Amino acid sequence: MRAAISIKNISKNYGALQALDDVSLSIEQGEFFGLLGPNGAGKTTLISILAGLVTTDSGHAAIMGADVQSQFRDARRMLGVVPQELVFDPFFTVRETLQFQSGYFGIRHNDAWIDEIMANLDLTGKADSNMRSLSGGMKRRVLVAQALVHRPPVIILDEPTAGVDVELRQSLWQFISRLNQDGHTIVLTTHYLEEAEALCQRIAMLKQGKIVALDTTANLLSQYGSVKKDGEGKTDLEDVFVNIMSGGAR
Ligand SMILES: Nc1ncnc2c1ncn2[C@@H]1O[C@H](COP(=O)(O)OP(=O)(O)OP(=O)(O)O)[C@@H](O)[C@H]1O
């Protein structure tokens, strides 16, 4: 079976800064995968390369077998990206925003699917509201909806729960988990490590542009978790993250 995402020896410099240093990674179809790392580790740069927004200096990446540069259109059609930044045209309504996004992928008459996505994200009541009138959390829901209009098999979410309330986080995770159960490949970046621990089957950790850990969540916990001094209490992904990032991993 083709990998959902294949990344081979990718490096990327911004001037003197090496944002990615020979990164290789394969994410299988149907995985719920976590891409973690401190601020500036290179997560968004990697996602931008996969989305065709940033070019690599060396290496290759493919989405469902389609090269992100030489087969850009095919690769982009296979991918839905929920970006970190809340960027919208303030004059469109929610429905228009989603129709416009469908048009970008050459899809007409997409209203039945748009209605279904909006219902799942509790956006139906806001369908005719202008984007500028929405709260930050509602805008975040529209970003998720936008990523799904063309029914991509692979979905990347770049810190989708930054600054959103508990209720939305939970409904978002229910919806994303259901998409994963339906066979979608999900890649998540987040600084909420308890979310990654609960949701992701496998995790890669980036530090200064390099992959410093790549394993199942269970293996990372058993190999890099701290044994609490009093012998009580469970180790968690935050322990693992701190241990790996401080270089103190066993
Ligand atoms: N367009 C750019 N020009 C110059 N430097 C950039 C550019 N984009 C990113 N960088 C730098 O590349 C490095 C990696 O940034 P990136 O945004 O990929 O990290 P990140 O892991 O997504 O961080 P965060 O968790 O803060 O979102 C950082 O040092 C950043 O300042």
From TrEMBL:
Which intervals hold domain ABC transporter? 5-233
GO MF annotations, alphabetized = ATP binding; ATP hydrolysis activity
- Does the entry feature the keyword Ion transport, yes or no? no
What InterPro entries does the entry give? AAA+_ATPase (IPR003593), ABC_transporter-like_ATP-bd (IPR003439), ABC_transporter-like_CS (IPR017871), ABC_transporter_ATP-binding (IPR050763), P-loop_NTPase (IPR027417)
TM segment ranges: none
Gene3D superfamilies membership: P-loop containing nucleotide triphosphate hydrolases (3.40.50.300)
Q: Name one Pfam family in it.
A: ABC_tran
The UniProt keywords, alphabetically, are:
ATP-binding, Cell inner membrane, Cell membrane, Membrane, Nodulation, Nucleotide-binding, Transport
Residue ranges annotated as coiled coil are: none
Protein family according to the UniProt entry: Belongs to the ABC transporter superfamily.
Name of the featured protein: ABC transporter ATP-binding protein
Organism encoding this protein = Polynucleobacter arcticus
